[in-house]
Design a protein that fits this description.
Blueprint: H1 10-18, H2 20-29, E1 35-39, H3 51-69, E2 73-75, E3 79-80, H4 85-93, H5 106-130, E4 141-142, H6 146-161, E5 165-175, E6 180-182, E7 187-205, E8 221-227, E9 238-241, E10 246-252, E11 256-261, H7 265-272, E12 277-284, H8 285-288, E13 292-293, E14 305-309, E15 322-324, H9 330-338, H10 371-382, E16 386-400, E17 408-418, H11 423-429, E18 434-436, H12 439-449, E19 453-455, E20 457-458, E21 469-471, E22 477-478, H13 481-494, H14 512-515, E23 521-523, E24 527-528, H15 530-535, H16 537-545, E25 556-560, H17 567-578, E26 591-595, E27 598-600, H18 616-620, H19 630-639, E28 646-648, H20 650-673, H21 689-710, H22 714-736, H23 738-743, H24 749-769, H25 774-783, H26 786-789, H27 810-836, E29 845-850, H28 856-865, H29 874-879, E30 884-887, E31 897-904, E32 907-915, E33 919-920, E34 927-929, H30 937-951
Parallel strand pairs: 1-2, 1-25, 3-4, 8-11, 9-14, 18-26, 25-26, 27-28, 29-30
Antiparallel strand pairs: 5-6, 5-17, 7-8, 7-13, 7-16, 9-15, 10-11, 10-12, 13-14, 17-19, 20-24, 21-22, 21-23, 29-32, 31-32, 33-34
Helix pairs in contact: 1-2, 1-25, 3-19, 4-5, 6-13, 19-20, 19-22, 20-22, 20-24, 21-22, 21-24, 21-27
Pfam families: Anticodon_1, tRNA-synt_1
EC number: 6.1.1.5
Catalytic activity: tRNA(Ile) + L-isoleucine + ATP = L-isoleucyl-tRNA(Ile) + AMP + diphosphate
């Protein structure tokens, strides 16, 4: 086996054997009653794969492979999220030239989007499989498949049946850049958004404000409000105050008399660059309730508007009075709704003012966030309603997470799912879910608790239709269990594209009983939120694997940490919303694991503009280096603490590849030493203490790693493996047994005992490494003899390697702590000899261990000096010197010596390192020959046995 894998077609064969063939083998051979379901959070079918995809898919594959090794029947059916605006826009952009001057209908847009999604899925699937990710690829699911869409519509129907769906004209997050409503899960917040904030004055009508009594008689007072969205002033319907706080009237030099919260006078003064003088104080907020004012940009005879009490108003910011536009804010909407004030939103789908926005002021067609804001501020200034302007107010603001553009809040008629009704059940059901990291529980709980409803409608063509019909005369929606079932029946036969086509007569979509009433209906053109799409993937999973009585459908959901607000949440909501029966699990998952995002080595987000991006292929095929490979990519993933954001770069990958090299070299060494092994194991009780110690280490490493895999701490698995490789094996067992492996007779009990241990070490290695670097372990398997493979086509088919309980000898491990302490002193003496006497190799030295006869220290050392095999002294092998003897006095060395005194089991012990007394054997290089240039007795025996075996007698 080469140190680095050959870049040849053999890789494809290894990949097939350890992935596709292994998945099929486990489906045919592992018991289905011991099922482990790993449900795939669908990647988006919209472009090339990046390192985040590699992190996600390889983590899942490590989990799945460990489950197979543990004897569990794995179900991993990959899936793809195919609908939504990004795919739609990308499909349209790719046909820009051919579409010049042509308006496309929904059916054409859907055809282009489907074509793009299918092409992307084919490319992504090939790359996922090239990383050694095994799964049921032939039966993958896509949210655009008919069976998926029908199962999703049935979830929709079930939620409708339970009264959880409704339509309402209310403010929602609206993305002008996308032309659609957005759910909270589709937002990201820009902490450095810059707005134009304004102080605006609203004239109060004292005669229409009975709560103020005569305190404002004869005084012209205006309410001072502060807003970061001046463009919403045309939609103002009320002013909110807090009934519990105190207000006052101040006199100003440039703006007359203003009403402001007593605690905000100073801030108002800073804003208008004056020092306002309080002339009326002690006005309780409750006395302002019912007062009325005139919109500053409407005529004097316009309808007066109310001042209302609102708990959301505080004296911590602004002026303590809040301008309310119920068509552009949720708090405003809820407050005005209590007082029967309808929302007003004179803004269109593109985020531009309509003709209803302050007619006569020329606002129509202006973008509200840009030119519209500028125009409103100009109008306010000309009307002397603008008290002050903050041209650059930096604050947190919602953005469309796809287009990275700011959104607005705008009242439109949308379809909603009522989350408020089910949120308590959702949160309660999470008590039985395991989260890794544990903070995921509070994160998901927080997201669910913060929602009261879910806007599920989108104004796009590429998606699953909301199966609603609208009365042509009244625009009233028809959405009942009967009408939805009727529509599903047609879509089941024709496919969802039929909803946008002309192949089905309009009246055919209407159920017969309703058709007979004579009312005419038209199909709605809204689609479902893509989170509703992917959030109902548990339904297609249930159709594939069946219901698991009393258990969640999936044992594991594993995705990026952003999915607490996305897929985890939408899956939970739709599952709880449709679950019936006391024995049914409400959550679709038993365990939720989240990982972070990929950063460069300096902890910065990867960006093309910064030039710090890296793709999976850069890890697999690094330029100018004979390293890398699929196993390097997988080993990097396993080495990361995925519960946080993870870093990658050339320095990090150098460390990964060095670990991979060490593993390959070690496995290559193990294979080489088993090449002539006949498969006959030496009985444990006939092994040397060194061999038993190696098995004790193996036992503890195996158990520790098994537990660490179960806890999903894969980076800790790598740490244990590399420590075991470098310390327990390379620096000890494989080093101290080389002499016997190369020099002892082939069939000697000691050599065969070492091979027995090496066989178990190799089997353990293949078991603990297979989930992470399956190509490497499959390659080792292809080079191993039948005595190792036992007829299996790969290491996974033999299951998780389980060491014998007898090997877990704690007393032996404790003894070796003392032996290793003595070994350290021997090495120290040899290092001094290298410097002072020019010693080049350890075998030039011998050691004398000076202890008192009958002491605990002497008894321990004697156990290693003469073992069960007659004539065997283990200490020279352990210390890698030519001889070790026990004595009661420090010897007088004819040449040189180095002595170190220590305490061993409470007794004095002196470790003396001196020149070996014998001559160097030219065959084994151990200084035990009687005469120079003659082989030692051991090598003589080895050669004699070989001669007898192959020649019948010694050569003449």
């Amino acid at each position: 086996m080469p140190i680095w894998p050959n870049k040849s077609s053999s890789k494809e064969e290894l990949l097939r054997k350890c992935s596709d063939e292994l998945y099929e083998w486990q489906r045919a051979n592992l018991p289905k009653q011991n099922l482990f379901v790993l449900h795939d959070g669908p990647p988006y079918a919209n472009g090339t794969l990046h390192l985040g995809h590699a992190l996600n898919k390889i983590l899942k594959d490590i989990v799945g492979r460990f489950q197979v090794l543990s004897g569990r029947h794995l179900s991993y059916i990959p899936g793809w999220d195919c609908h939504g605006l990004p795919i739609e826009l990308k499909a349209l952009q790719s046909h820009t030239e051919s579409l010049k001057g042509k308006a496309m209908d929904a059916a054409e847009i859907r055809s282009l989007a489907r074509e793009l999604a299918e092409k992307t899925i084919t490319e992504q699937m090939a790359e996922f499989r090239s990383w050694g990710v095994m799964g049921d690829w032939d039966n993958h699911w896509r949210t655009m498949d008919k069976d998926y869409e029908i199962s999703q519509l049935r979830v929709f129907k079930e939620m409708l049946k339970r009264g959880l769906l409704y339509r309402r004209f209310k403010p929602v997050f609206w993305s002008p850049s996308s032309g659609t409503a957005l759910a909270e899960a589709e937002l990201e917040y820009n902490e450095k958004h810059v707005s134009r904030a304004a102080f605006v004055a609203f004239p109060i009508r004292p005669t229409a404000s009975p709560g103020l009594g005569t305190r404002l008689d004869g005084i012209s007072v205006r309410a001072a409000v502060w807003t970061t969205t001046p463009w919403t002033i045309p939609a103002n319907k009320a002013i909110a105050i807090n009934a519990e706080i105190e207000y006052c009237v101040v006199d100003t030099e440039n703006h007359g008399k203003l009403l402001v919260a007593s605690g905000r006078v100073g801030e108002l003064g800073k804003g208008i660059n004056e020092q306002p003088k309080v002339i009326i104080d002690g006005i309780l907020g409750q006395n302002l309730v019912g007062a009325q004012y005139l919109h500053p940009l409407l005529r004097e005879d316009a309808q007066l508007q109310p001042i209302l009490p609102g708990d959301f108003v505080t004296a911590d910011s602004g002026t303590g009075l809040v301008h309310c536009a119920p068509g552009h804010g949720m708090d405003d909407y809820l407050l005005c709704r209590k007082h029967d004030i309808e929302p007003f939103s004179p803004v269109d789908n593109d985020g531009r003012f309509t003709e209803d926005a302050l007619p006569g002021y020329g606002l129509e067609g202006m973008e509200v966030l840009f030119g519209g804001t500028k125009k409103i501020l100009q109008i306010l200034m000309e009307s002397k309603a603008l008290l002050a302007l903050q041209p650059r107010f930096t604050h947190k603001y919602p953005y469309d997470w796809r287009t990275k553009r700011p959104v607005i809040v705008r009242a439109t008629a949308q379809w909603f799912a009522d989350v408020d009704v089910i949120k308590d059940v959702c949160v309660d059901s999470l008590k039985n879910v395991v989260f890794v990291p544990s903070s995921g529980r509070s994160r998901l709980t927080s997201y669910v608790n913060s929602r009261s409803e879910w806007c599920i409608s989108r104004q796009r063509a590429w998606g699953v239709p909301i199966p609603v019909l609208y009365d042509i005369d009244t625009n009233e929606p028809l959405l009942t269990g009967e009408s939805v079932e009727h529509i599903i029946g047609i879509l089941e036969e024709k496919g969802t594209d039929a909803w946008w086509g002309s192949g089905v007569p309009e009246e055919a979509w209407v159920p017969e009983p309703i058709r007979m009433t004579g009312k005419r209906y038209a199909r709605g053109k809204e689609t479902m939120d893509v989170w509703f799409d992917s959030g109902t993937s548990w339904a297609i999973l249930r159709s594939r694997i069946g219901q698991r009585e009393g258990k969640p459908l999936a044992d594991l959901y594993l995705e990026g940490s952003d999915q607490h607000r996305g897929w985890f949440q939408s899956s939970l909501l739709t599952s709880v919303a449709t679950t019936t029966g006391l024995s049914a699990a409400k959550t679709p998952f038993a365990m939720v694991v989240t990982h972070g995002f990929c950063l460069d080595e300096k902890g910065k987000k990867m960006s093309k503009s910064l030039g710090n991006t890296m793709a999976p292929v850069d890890v697999i095929q690094p330029k100018g280096k004979s390293i890398g490979g699929i196993d390097a990519l997988r080993l990097w993933v396993a080495s990361c603490d995925y519960t946080k954001d993870v870093s990658i770069g050339s320095t990090i990958l150098d460390g990964v590849n060095e670990n991979l090299r060490k593993l390959r070299v070690t496995l290559r060494f193990l294979l080489g030493n088993l090449e002539d092994w006949d498969g006959k194991e030496v009985d444990y009780f006939d092994l040397t203490k060194t061999d038993k110690y190696a098995l004790a280490q193996l036992y503890q490493v195996n158990r520790a790693i098994a537990e660490t895999y179960k806890n999903m701490h894969f980076n800790r698995v790598i740490q244990i493996i590399m420590s075991y490789t470098n310390t327990d094996l390379s620096a000890f067992y494989l080093d101290v047994t080389k002499d016997s492996m190369y020099s002892d007779p082939k069939d000697s009990q000691r050599r065969r005992g070492i091979q027995t241990v090496i066989y178990h070490i190799l089997r353990n290695y293949l078991s603990i490494l297979t989930p992470i670097v399956p190509l490497l372990t499959q390659e080792v398997w292809s080079h191993a003899t039948s005595f190792v493979t036992k007829g299996a086509t790969g290491p996974a088919q033999l299951g998780w390697y389980k060491p014998v309980e007898t090997w877990n000898d704690e007393n032996l491990i404790e003894e070796f702590k003392h032996i290793n302490a003595i070994h350290s002193l021997v090495k120290r003496g040899i290092e001094k000899a290298r410097v002072e006497q020019g010693v080049k190799v350890n075998l030039e030295a011998s050691a004398v261990l000076v202890t008192s006869e009958g002491s605990k220290a002497r008894k321990l050392l004697e156990k290693y000096g003469e073992h069960i095999i007659p004539g065997t002294n283990e200490l020279p092998h352990i210390f890698i010197v030519s001889a070790v003897s026990l004595g009661e006095a420090i010897p007088t060395s004819p040449t040189w010596k180095h002595a170190e005194r220590t305490n061993l089991l409470g007794d004095d012990c002196t470790v003396v390192v001196q020149r070996a007394l014998g001559n160097k054997c030219p065959r084994c290089w151990v200084y035990t020959s009687e005469n120079p240039d003659e082989i030692c007795d051991r090598c003589e025996n080895t050669i004699t046995s070989l001669a007898k075996k192959y020649c019948g007698s010694l050569p003449a």
